[in-house]
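Retro notes, structure queue

What went well: the backlog is down to a handful. What didn't: a couple of records were mislabeled last round, so from now on we paste the full input next to the output in the thread. Example, using Zinc-binding dehydrogenase from Methanoculleus methanifontis:
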Amino acid sequence: MKQVLLDLQSGSIQVENVPVPAVTRGVVVENAYSLISAGTESSLINLAQQSLVGKAKARPDDVKKVIQKVGTDGPLSAYQQAMSRLAKPEPLGYSSAGTVVTTASDEFEVGDRVACAGAGYAVHAEYVSVPKNLCVRIPDGVEFKEAAFTTVGAIAMHGARNANVTVGENVAVIGLGLIGLLTVQILKAAGCRVIGIDIDREKLLLAECLGADVVSNYDGLFERARALSPFGADAVVITAATRSSAPIEAAGRLVRDKGRVVVVGNVGMNVPRDVFYAKEAEVVVSRSYGPGRYDRNYEERGIDYPIYVRWTEKRNMEAFLELVRQKKIDLDRLITHTFPLDDAPGAYDLINTGKERFIGVLLQYSPNGAGASGTVVRFPGPGARTRKAPAAARTLGCIGAGVHAQSALYPHLSALPVNLGGLATATGLSAQTVAKKYGFAYCTTDHQRILDDPDIDAVMIATRNDLHAPMAINALRAGKDVFVEKPLATDIDGLRRIVEARNESGQRLMVGFNRRYSPLAVKMKNFFANRATPAVLHYRVNAGQIPPEHWVHDDEQGGGMLISECCHFIDFMQYITGARPVQVVARAIEPTGTLQKYDNFQATLTFDDGSLGTVTYTTLGDRSYPKETVEVFAGNAVGRITDFRDLELRREGKASRERRWLAQEKGFAEELLAFVKGEEPEFAASVATTLATFAAWESIDTGTAQEIDPGRVGL
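Corresponding output:
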């Protein structure tokens, strides 16, 4: 299928061929129309067209993160990660309409006409995959091109609701762009008297045609407003887009005592305190298109709110379409341009240059005949690869292309003696972009294609945590050797089924515990190889907080930081000691505020050779301080690794030190080489590590020590 993409490095608009997205918790829709959001999309394009210095000035928070990465990972690693993010094209669009072609929801059937919403979902593409709570049926009598306005209509609807207006009240709307003109019509449908305000004469005339009772520019505004309502506007809705604070200042003068000002547009917020204080007026910043926005449970997982949360984003979408059906909203006057998908660059050129006046700009799609089965795109030639692998090399298929895969794993593929078969991801854009960059033969949004491919004999799984176990099991049963990122499983049942599948299949399974493959780790292990005493180990992780809404905290998808991250450090201790953990005692800080229960803890492990290891994991430190420090004490000797850039070894008063200045040596390249060369992984150690994280969780919950017994999972 074809999709509109923004090159974040150059700012150019491209129409690329990508696989049809996979259906998850909603539907796959064949788009008929999508609406270009001139304000939102233009700002992103303008940012992309700036130089690296310009991008840095516009995103100072991102620059701060890069600087922090330089301190922990080294300048080379930090630069590579930053450029990797910029190299990934950005999907555009968030409002579309079309026909359901595949469904995973009992709320929709194939053939339903639907309106779709959401950045990353209702994009400018021939097919889109949309969660069920971001999708609504289109009423009879409403055309696809009208329904394509539903998302921006819901934004206007939510802004009007935040104004808390009732029949007969007087409302001012400042800014008569697309959302402002929709807001005028919504307020008129609600029985309000409306004054429309803009500096553009043609928009004022259009607002008047669409029902505004009074229109005005800023000249003579307050006289006209007093003529409409001598005591001031009951509410003011700001839908303008400007860095200036003039709209909020004007709103303060227009609104009545104890009235309400609702900010929908991106405007300057230098609120004149004296004006608002004198009137005790309320200022509300309207958040997108209703309750549910930015809530992963609602948007991604489809968990709806009770009806007493009356106007969720989906219900606002439905209400907007009902007003369109009743002909209370006129969209024909707002559609100024319609472009075919292939001419999308021309549409954006029109918007960015302003060579013609525009309001509503639509992209129109024609059936391409591929249907929702077009989930594979093949690339001619060797793609981005510059070196051909040996004829006898194995063929690797990869599933997943998230940040970790692209920054830590895939950059090493070109140096491996391996042929790259297929790459599978859930979204077509990610699949196409990453597959082309690293030289895969094809990309797909159906991971089963990788497992069914007879030419692929090894599979790398780098998806979200909850998919590791089921995908690894399926790959083993398909007769493939498996490299799976950590954690191996997120629950005991998943781990038990992996052990069973691995034993039955006879295939190799390696877990991405990369730190044991670091050259610095190898030197530390060799340093303690002839120790005559048990070891005492301390692994301290100054992780920094991960936002609570991040998927890794989700019980279903991530399993929390203890399951997701602590496994690395336990495995490293196993590697250094050559021993298995047999017991764990763990304690955690109780959750408070944004702190998660299993994000600040200490776990002390006893190993079967008598060694003791403690993991201290905290999100409470300063990110400028080293992230990972591991210390080993044994046989009158000490070893320390800091951030896998600095190794210090001491014995008998003598010290040696190695420092990596440009980048970390975390062992990613070495572990991948070991996998493709067919080295036998320490599967039992990986299972013991995973069991230890589950036992640490149980220890925190129960307050008691927990035994680590591989027999629980049949090992």
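Agreed that this is the format going forward. Reviewer comment attached to the example: The chain is about 35% helix and 25% strand.
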